[in-house]
């Protein structure tokens, strides 16, 4: 009887383990508190200091990455509020669909700009000087708008209550419902797995290329290898666990009718989805602060007491940071 009740609560989007979901909520609140000022300050630098629209394409991609992360952050307090009250989603249908739209659009954008930036770095390192479509398109800011627009159709299938509560393939679906469930899950998995394969390939080729390069600054080469490797770490920590958990949940639903097992798989999936929001905190650390110029700019603007020497100058029109004669960061 207890297991049947638990399964019904999962189907109704109610949390069966309220203490655990309160812990999930606390984690989301902590991510929000730490990541919001970090992303907001970086956004401020891109707009008012670097003037990203006048600078190189990498700054445009990174700006959109930070924008996607900061928009995703605004969903976390609502999600945490629901978890604290023992609900896995909002009971308000409009709020529920708006949350799903924001969560999947902005997370998809974050993944997309991570991937595009890695592809751009791949061509710059492995095929320097070779003409390619991305190199031609990236000179125009419109490519970022195109990426956002392409993500919209992929977001629509996820804006359903059944997806939020992990009710796909419940076992009593009609043929049409089963097809819709399958299409929705395909969107979820391809949005993560295809970029992951691309990232693995680009990262492997970049690392291999940099390790074979014997001419140049060893410190810079090590920093570049660290940067591309960090991309894989962030992606693996934030997105792969929830993808695997989703896959296991679907297998349990289709093959195993044990109520307790389904309950545990759903709770684990929710927890790993919370882990995926760490992406908002890790992206700025990996992509922005691995650049010594950006790190120096950030510290000189927000923590000048940590910078020795003259403030770091900025050419606003180009976004370039000329090397100062004396500027040592502690």
UniProtKB/TrEMBL annotation:
Alphabetical list of InterPro entries matching this protein = GPCR_Rhodpsn, GPCR_Rhodpsn_7TM, HCARs
The listed locations are: Membrane
Gene Ontology cellular component?
membrane
Query: Which Pfam families did the record assign?
Result: 7tm_1
Q: What SUPFAM superfamilies does the annotation carry?
A: Family A G protein-coupled receptor-like
Segments crossing the lipid bilayer = 23-48, 60-80, 100-123, 143-160, 186-204, 225-252
Q: How does it sit in the membrane?
A: Multi-pass membrane protein
Extract the coiled-coil ranges from the record.
none
Domain G-protein coupled receptors family 1 profile, first and last residues per copy:
38-287
Keyword terms of this UniProt record: G-protein coupled receptor, Membrane, Receptor, Transducer, Transmembrane, Transmembrane helix
Top-level division of the source organism's lineage: Eukaryota
Molecular function (GO) terms for this protein are: G protein-coupled receptor activity
Q: Which family does it belong to?
A: Belongs to the G-protein coupled receptor 1 family.
Q: This protein is called what?
A: G-protein coupled receptors family 1 profile domain-containing protein
- Organism of this sequence: Pleuronectes platessa
């Amino acid at each position: 009887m207890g297991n049947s009740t638990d399964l019904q609560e999962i189907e109704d989007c109610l949390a069966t383990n309220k203490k655990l979901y309160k812990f999930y909520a606390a984690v989301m609140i902590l991510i929000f508190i730490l990541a919001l000022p970090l992303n907001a300050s970086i956004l401020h630098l891109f707009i008012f200091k670097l003037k990203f629209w006048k600078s190189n394409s990498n700054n445009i991609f990174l700006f959109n990455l930070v924008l996607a992360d900061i928009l995703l952050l605004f969903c976390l307090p609502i999600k945490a509020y629901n978890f604290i009250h023992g609900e896995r989603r909002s009971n308000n249908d409009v709020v529920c669909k708006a949350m799903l739209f924001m969560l999947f659009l902005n997370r998809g954008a974050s993944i997309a700009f991570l991937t595009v930036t890695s592809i751009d770095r791949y061509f710059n390192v492995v095929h320097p000087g070779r003409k390619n479509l991305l190199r031609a398109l990236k000179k125009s800011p419109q490519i970022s708008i195109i990426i956002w627009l392409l993500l919209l159709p992929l977001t629509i299938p996820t804006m359903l209550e059944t997806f939020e509560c992990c009710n796909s393939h419940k076992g009593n679906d009609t043929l049409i419902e089963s097809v819709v469930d399958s299409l929705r899950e395909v969107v979820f998995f391809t949005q993560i797995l295809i970029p992951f394969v691309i990232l693995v390939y680009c990262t492997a080729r970049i690392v291999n290329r940099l390790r074979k390069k014997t001419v140049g600054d060893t410190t810079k080469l090590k920093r570049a290898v660290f940067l591309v490797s960090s991309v894989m770490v962030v992606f693996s920590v934030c997105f792969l666990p929830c993808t695997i958990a989703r896959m296991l949940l679907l297998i349990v639903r289709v093959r195993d009718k044990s109520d307790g097992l389904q309950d545990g798989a759903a709770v684990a999936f929710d927890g790993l989805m919370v882990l995926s929001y760490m992406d908002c905190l890790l992206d700025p650390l990996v992509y922005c602060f691995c650049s010594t110029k950006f790190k120096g700019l950030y510290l000189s603007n927000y923590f000048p007491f940590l910078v020795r020497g003259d403030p770091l100058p900025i050419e606003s029109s180009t976004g370039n940071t000329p090397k100062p004669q004396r500027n040592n960061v502690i």
